[in-house]
Amino acid sequence: MYFGVLGPLLVRTDAGEPVAVPDTKVRTLLLDLLANEGRPVSADRLIDDLWGTRPPRNATGTLQARVSQLRTALERAEPGARRLVEHGPAGYRLATDVVDSNVFEQRIRTGRLREALGLWRGQAYADVRDHEFARATRDRLEDLYVTALEELSNRGEEVLQETTALVQQRPLDERLHAIHLKALYRAGRQHDALQAFAELRDALVEELGADPGPELAELHQAILRHDPALRRPPTLPTPLNDLVGRDEMLAAAQQQLATNRLVTLVGPGGVGKTRLAVELGRQHGTDVRLLELAPLRQGEVLDALATALSLRDESSDLLPRLLESLGSRQLLLILDNCEHLDLAGLVRRLLAAAPGLRILATSREPLGLTGELVLDVPPLTTAAAVVLFQARAGVTDDVTAICERLDGIPLALELAATRVRALGVQGLADRLDDRFRLLAGGKGGPERQRTLRATIDWSWDLLDDDERRMLRRLAVHAGTFSLEAAAQVSDLPEHLVLALVDKSLVVATAGRYHLLESVAAYSLERLTEAGEEAETRRKHATYYLALAQRADLHGPGQREWLRRLDQEVANFRVIPPSLELATALAWYWYLRGRLGEARRTLAAALAVPGQDPALRGQAMVWLAGMAATDAEGTDVAAAGEEALRAVGDDPHALWFLTMTRWAYGDASVLTDRIDRAIAAFTERDDRWGLAAALSTRAQLSIVHADLDAMRRDSLRSLELFEELDDDWGRLQATYALIVAAEISGDYPTATAYLEDAIRRAEDLGLWTEVSFRTAGLGRIALLTGDYARADELHERARRLAVEQSNKSAEEYAEVGLGLSARRQGRLDDAERLFTKWLRWLTQIGGTPGIAFISNQLGFIAEERGDLATARTLHERGHEAARRTGDPRAVALALEGLAGATEDPTEAEALLTQAETLRHQSGIPLPPAEHHDLTRIRARWR
Fold first, then answer.
1. What distances in angstroms separate CA 245 from CA 37, 275, 387, 416, one per listed residue?
2. Using an 8 Å Cβ cutoff, are 144 and 108 in contact?
3. What share of residues in the chain are helix, strand, coil (percent, to 5)?
4. What is the DSSP letter of 702?
5. Ranges of H-type helices in 295-407
6. Are 361 and 263 in contact (CB under 8 A)?
7. Membrane spanning segments where (predicted)?
8. What is the end-to-end Cα distance of the chain in Å, rounded?
9. Over the range 760-774, which residues count as b (16 or more CB within 10 Å of their CB) and which as e?
10. Helix 931-940 vs helix 887-900: angle between axes, to the nearest 10 degrees?
11. What averages of pLDDT result for each successive group of 10 residues across the chain (941 residues)?
12. Is residue 258 classed exposed, middle or buried when 0-12, 13-18 and 19+ CB atoms within 10 A define those classes?
């Protein structure tokens, strides 16, 4: 039985006899089944299609009667034909592929376009033009018809008769009118072509309120100027727009194509492989032929290749004729979209038989031939993607975020740009989470590229079952992942990831792997459809928790583990908060200076009820320590005490809560804690803990200006950390040694320690430590009079601190800028910086800093001649200094008070008292720090 839908319904027997199908509803039923192309259609849907909103009273029974009538009509014409109308659980279907539309599509695929057009008897599904059920199939067939006309026209063949009839049916179709105008012009009817354009322009304005598009307008101009190109149909399609962002790729491909006979452009769907190949073909010097393989099946390739090569041969064995034809030709053959076909054998034979042949292939995976030169076509850079998007959308807005979320894939950018007119840039950005529905409905390109989903569907359909399972399970990873992680989370072998890399669905970079965002979104949908999302996410969380708990950030493996955890940050962030994960990552966050992230995650984990009390205690310690310099709503001292009550006298807790507060907390409380921690670490023979605690006690000794204790504890700490090969520990151990050298005036030693510390911190990526040590170098430059370098170093340290969101490091750097500004006489700048940080130090209880900055502000007031304000500030500094017990801080306040008094005798007594304190502490004021003392003495003299 033969069915025809490319015009009014036609039914014939195998012998060619016409079959009468009575009753309009029965014919509509048959056309509905034909439009679904062998797929079952439910009874409810058929009822809706046939009767719409006014179904008969017994709709199911009436439908069954119409089905029976259809079967009877078929059976009467051809015994046994009633079996073609099948019924199953999913509904009714017509079990036949002998339909003129199937033949039409097969001839289109193989390039037999004229034969395909000969099957067209009018409008597809002409009897049911007003029925929604036929719309998608009808539009696809008619689009193929127009595509065939366009291709024939581009080959120079006559299509005027067909286009004349078709433009009457589709009076506003610009693409069809473009073909018609070319056909008129090539038939020598320029006046008629111009008249047809004018009529279309008027119709568009009247019906749509729009002018013809740029392609049609350009064609109109070409007709007006008798463009010779209209007379010479191109062998390659003419792009509508310039190629954006591919200059380097184009140059590289041209160079490779000049020296290699087989070059394959490989990349994900929509990345622009075809557009790049066409541009390469347009710039090539020899004959170029394009064979579009996407619509072809394996057995149709030779016929289509013969058509592309303009070879007319009706023999049953085409290959020998093809090889003979190519033997003497100089030709570039572009094989576009090869991934779904096995072409290796054919390509090998073509290249062997034709020395003058070069093949440029595009595919989502290599052909796999010896001698094949594979060029990966990457997504556009962000800058190029922005240029492309702005040009296509006609906007100048900042679209960087949109372009990044669309991975720089040109197809996705082109589809998204079409939505800007309706949604605006911000509206589009807000809807990208629903990208597959948003980026749908494109027209004018191949069907597989009209929506973002269709592009990925094309690749998905080419995968085997295991590859599909792997791809959808990879969707739970965030950022990048390792082969080990992919295998563990998916319960599938690693080689499947590599197979997906070859198919351009997984991106490989420097030993890591990731999915483009659109592929990830698509794969997640597939994972949900398969009912596997919850279990896969559980395995993902289990794997990454185990990884975090396995990480050893103490000792020689520190650098490698920091790098490994850096790679997995995005994966850690998508795991639901838990105390296990938060406590496992806390030390990593601290080393990396991610204190804000640490606080947020720890707080979220602590808010989850019913967790292990021991883990809760650990998390409270970490949280209190991380909040040590965060004064926003946190009583850090009380939080530390509560945390210690939760864990008892745990030495690590005692040490961590001291280390993070050494410059700000109550010195007596902190000293007691660190002494207890040192005793416990010693008893337990915990060398890392002991080394860490000794370095912290050395820092506490800075507050009391005890040089001997600073050096003794630091050197012992450094010795232990050297034995443990712990670079972070080396940084900690040398901090007090740097300060001891600086306050003793030994600047070469301080500089050597600082430069070594910066090298180690940069190597580990500990940027907060780099900030502190860089500011330390700035202090040395300041003390040695190199103010320009001091400002440069302090500013560099400040930028790093801001990037790391570390207030303590930022304060240290900006106070250094303030000191330099005061030395250079820029008192307003200095005052602004000091005042800003005095408020912050007051909030967090940073008594040593309060004392120092109060004195600096006092010196500024004194230099301005405001002695009353200066005295008030120095008295405040003196009071804070006495609370710290640091004789150097007390001496500085006394020197300031000497400058603020109007009584020479009092001033001399204060200066003598300050000098005595400094000598008693064993730390006389180095010559480089005599600036204020010299100035004050000179004034009194």
1. 42, 12, 8, 18
2. yes
3. 65, 5, 30
4. H
5. 301-308, 318-326, 344-353, 382-393, 400-405
6. yes
7. none
8. 122
9. bbeebebbbbbbbbb
10. 30
11. 92 90 92 91 93 90 94 91 91 89 83 83 89 89 86 74 84 87 83 89 85 86 78 66 89 92 92 91 83 84 81 68 84 92 94 93 92 93 93 89 90 84 87 76 53 81 93 94 96 95 88 89 92 96 96 93 93 92 94 87 90 91 81 63 87 93 82 95 96 96 86 96 94 94 92 94 91 95 94 95 86 95 94 91 84 95 94 94 88 93 90 90 86 84 68
12. exposed
Which residues lie across from 894 on neighbouring strands? none
Is 447 within 8 Å of 435 (Cβ atoms)?
no
| C-alpha 521: how far from chain center | 12
Q: What is the 3-state secondary structure (H, E, C) of 664-696?
A: CCCHHHHHHHHHHHHHHHHHHCCHHHHHHHHHH
Amino acid making up residue 504: S
The DSSP result for 73-88, as a single string, is HHHHHSTTGGGGEEEE
Nearest to 523 by CA among 541, 542, 506, 499: 506
Q: Which H or E run contains 108?
A: helix 100-109
**pLDDT value for 606:** 93
Q: How far apart are CA 807 and CA 73, in angstroms?
A: 86
- Write the DSSP string, 121-174: -SSTTGGGTT-GGGHHHHHHHHHHHHHHHHHHHHTT---HHHHHHHHHHSTT-H
Q: Nearest-CA neighbor of 518 among 457, 469, 576, 465?
A: 457
108's CB contacts (< 8 A; 6+ apart) are 116, 144, 147, 148, 295
Question: Among residues 382, 384, 448, 383, which one has the least CA distance to residue 415?
Answer: 448
Sheet with 262-266: list strands edge to edge: 287-292, 331-336, 357-363, 262-266, 373-376
Burial of 193 (0-12, 13-18, 19+ CB in 10 A): buried
Q: What's the rounded Cα separation, in Å, for the pair 647 and 654?
A: 10
Sign of CA dihedral 495, 496, 500, 503: positive
Rounded to whole angstroms, the Cα distance separating 582 from 594 reads 13
Q: Which helix (H) or strand (E) holds 335?
A: strand 331-336
CA distances from 888 to 283, 780, 878, 922 (A): 78, 18, 11, 10
Q: Which two tokens stand for residue 316?
A: 């049953």
Residues 6+ apart with CB under 8 A from 547: 485, 564, 565, 568
Burial class (CB in 10 A: 0-12, 13-18, 19+), 541: buried
Angle at which helix 495-502 crosses helix 465-474, to 10 degrees, equals 90
Task: For residue 826, give both structure tokens.
Answer: 């820029």
C-alpha to C-alpha distance for 518 and 784, rounded to whole angstroms = 57
- Interatomic CA distance for residues 547 and 564, integer angstroms: 9
Give the contacts of 155 (CB within 8 A, at least 6 positions apart): 233
Contact assessment for residue 145 and residue 151, using Cβ atoms and an 8 Å cutoff = no
**Which residue do the tokens 């170093």 mark?**
793
H helical segments located in 361-482: 382-393, 400-405, 410-417, 420-430, 435-438, 452-461, 465-474
- Smallest CA-to-CA distance from 840 within 816, 810, 872, 883 is with 810
pTM of the model: 0.67
CA dist 139 and 725 (Å) reads 71
Rounded distance between C-alpha atoms, residue 898 and residue 918, angstroms: 15
Question: Which residue type does 454 have?
Answer: A
Which H, E and C letters describe 746-770, residue by residue?
CHHHHHHHHHHHHHHHHHHCCHHHH
Q: Note the Cα 400 to chain centre separation in Å.
A: 12
